[in-house]
Amino acid sequence: MDSLTKKLLEIDQALYAHEWAQQEALVAAYKESLHQMRDSMGAVYRKYAEGGKLKVGEMVQYKRQANLERQVTGQLKALGQKTNKITRKALIDGYKESYYRTGWGVETFTGIDMRFGIMDPEQLKAALVNPMSKIKWTESAANTIKQLNAQLKSTISTSIIQGRGYVETNKIIGKQMNMAANRSMRILRTETHRAQVQGRLSSLDKTATAAERLGLKMTRSWSSTSDLRTRDTHITMHGQQADKDNRFHLPTGGSTDGPGLSGIPEEDINCRCSIVAAFPDLEGEAEFEPGQKIEGSNLYCLI
Question: pTM above the 0.85 mark?
């Protein structure tokens, strides 16, 4: 019989597939915005450039530069709204999928109805907030767009002053958009993972309550992904069982309810670890199975 640990790790792969779909949507939003900016830049160069260059005096005097910058700001505002919508969906879906799939996994493995029922709407609201972070993800996302807007305005101004051509200017804009896309991706990936872990914890809390009534002992363990991108501290954490208060203790000295929930940026950002559970009375003291490798790059390229 397969262990519950193995079943939960298989569920993690399914959760990652859902997360990946939202990552792709985020990349598509940035690509669309980049195309819009290039179209706006192209229109200005085709209409006003002489010898492939824009004249500073005319761009300022006729407010052509200001109009272009307003277009860029409007495009970035729309981009910010799209990325927030995508991230919110990723968090809510991540929490729900993790909660219900974990419950299904436990019930399928044990053959016991744990009475999970319908999720409390307040649980979904909690998925949108990181209780351990001093800076909300919405603020980080807004700062990413704000910083990008300042960079692009600077690029437009500098390109006009230095007489850069359309191709060179758009190459710089592409690089800046690419950097912002990866910052947004880091936010989405980190926060979605956090919501997935919270969903699993909520499911395991219900499982523990039901198991206690049935006289069953349940353990929780930290499962690290096994590849070269895994932090050394998280490799050390692999297989650690939670203490009596269901807390895990990091080698750096901090403690946490689970991966991505420590409130320590260097431990939480881009974390891909998970929590697995076991019923020793049903499985025996089975050897802890290693975390599965999750494919996928941390970086995206728009150009």
Answer: yes
